[in-house]
Structures are given as C-alpha cells and as structure tokens.
C-alpha cells in the first residue's frame, strides 16, 4: 500500500494491501486469524529449535554456521512486523479517526494513495512494514530455499495488483502474508534435515519437546553382544539343559 504523507510531500510503500478491512468482522476471517496465530506459534517453535541446533552444533565453518543461524532467527523480524501491521489491517488500530476501508497494493495515482498526515500517527504500522520488507528481501536472497514460496507470492502479488479476482482480494492477501510470515514451517525442516550433523543433533536434542518426541518415536535398542559372548551364552544354555536331562 502506498501512503501519501502530508498531502503528497512524500510517499511510503509498505507490504500490506488492505487497511481497516471489514472482512475480518466475519467468522470466516476470524477463524483464519486464529489459524494464523496457531501456525505462528509452531513457526516460533521451529525457529527456536532450528536456531538452537545450528548454534550448538558445528556443521560448517563458524562464520557459515553464524550466517545460517542469523537467517533462521531473523524470522523474528517478520513476527514482530506482522504483529504490528495486523491490527491496522483488521481495523483494531486505525491510522486516524476517520479511517476507512482502503484497498491498494501499488499505484502511481496520488488520488488512489492512502492519505496520512504524519508517520507518527501510525508509527507501529510503518515500523512493522519496514521489518516485513527487511525479512522479505532477506528471504529472496536465499532464493533456492524459498523458490516455490517466492513464486507463489509473486503470482499472488500480480493477481492482487491487477485485480484479476477482486472478490478474493482479502483472502489472497491473507495467503500472501502467510507465505511470507510462515515460511519457517517449511524452510526450517528442510534446512535441518538437509545437513546430517544437524538432523542427528535434532534427534538427540535435550530440548524438552524434542526430547519427548524422540523418546516416543525412537526406541534405543540394546547394543549387540560380541560374538564371543553370544557363543559362551549358547554353550552355557546347552550345558544347563544337558544337566537337567541327566538328572
């Protein structure tokens, strides 16, 4: 959405499409928000677990490990950004007292831009937008890992911008936001399980949740006895059996 600040003095573009969207007053979209919240919690757990594994398990050079860890933990920027922009999108927080339902992704027509007197009136919105932009550009830099999600996001942006299916704008925007925000649910497992050192560390992790899962899923089998011990045990068994028969 393009904001025209102080009667067109300058413009700012932040990655949201709707503002004060009354669609979120319906049960359907409220349900989607609850689903997003639950998935965000799972994404946070994925981030914490992956970050812990990468930091504590050295699979590459220290600098490379640090870069991977920074990329994973940088999801926090998206988490904070999403938390700051969502209240404005659904209308809980308003840019001004006369805020209406604005819908726009990008435009060069000043008349279609969202007017605002000063950034200070809604600084959480612009801070959240900046953090979201930062995380999006960071994700694009890791192009191979997020190729499918990036392509889906680009397709949604094109559909929304050109209003190909205008009646689905809110839902498509919701999908776009979650492709950006919830990508750790896919990227973290792919990243961890693509490196054997990290995947082994995950399975033997002492994190409470992971520890419980691995205890349930993986049963420690007793170590195989040496061949000599097996032979001795067999001979002892038959000796005892022979003694029983002789008695």
UniProtKB/TrEMBL annotation:
GO terms for cellular component: membrane. It is found in: Membrane. InterPro entries: 7TM_GPCR_serpentine_rcpt_Sre, Nematode_rcpt-like. It comes from the Eukaryota. The chain crosses the membrane at residues 27-55, 67-90, 133-162, 174-198. One of its GO terms (biological process) is sensory perception of chemical stimulus. It is a multi-pass membrane protein. The gene is Cnig_chr_II.g6890. It comes from Caenorhabditis nigoni. Keywords: Membrane, Transmembrane, Transmembrane helix. This is 7TM GPCR serpentine receptor class x (Srx) domain-containing protein. It holds the Pfam family Sre. Belongs to the nematode receptor-like protein sre family. Signal peptide: none annotated.
């Amino acid at each position: 959405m393009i904001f025209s600040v102080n009667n067109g003095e300058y413009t700012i573009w932040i990655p949201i499409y709707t503002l004060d969207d009354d669609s979120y007053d319906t049960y359907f979209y409220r349900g989607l928000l609850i689903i997003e919240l639950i998935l965000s919690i799972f994404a946070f757990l994925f981030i914490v677990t992956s970050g812990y594994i990468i930091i504590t398990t050295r699979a590459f050079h220290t600098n490379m490990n640090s870069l991977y860890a920074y990329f994973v933990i940088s999801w926090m920027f998206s988490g904070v950004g999403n938390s700051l922009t969502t209240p404005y999108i659904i209308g809980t927080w308003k840019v001004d007292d006369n805020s209406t339902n604005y819908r726009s992704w990008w435009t060069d027509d000043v008349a279609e831009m969202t007017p605002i007197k000063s950034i200070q009136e809604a600084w959480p919105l612009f801070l959240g937008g900046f953090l979201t932009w930062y995380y999006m550009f960071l994700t694009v830099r890791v192009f191979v890992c997020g190729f499918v999600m990036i392509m889906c996001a680009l397709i949604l942006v094109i559909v929304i911008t050109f209003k190909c299916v205008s009646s689905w704008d809110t839902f498509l925007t919701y999908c776009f936001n979650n492709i950006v925000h919830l990508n750790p649910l896919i990227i973290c497992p792919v990243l961890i399980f693509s490196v054997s050192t990290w995947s082994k560390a995950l399975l033997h992790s002492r994190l409470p949740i992971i520890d419980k899962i691995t205890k349930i899923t993986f049963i420690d089998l007793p170590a195989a006895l040496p061949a000599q011990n097996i032979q001795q045990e067999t001979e002892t068994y038959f000796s005892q059996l022979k003694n029983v028969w002789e008695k």
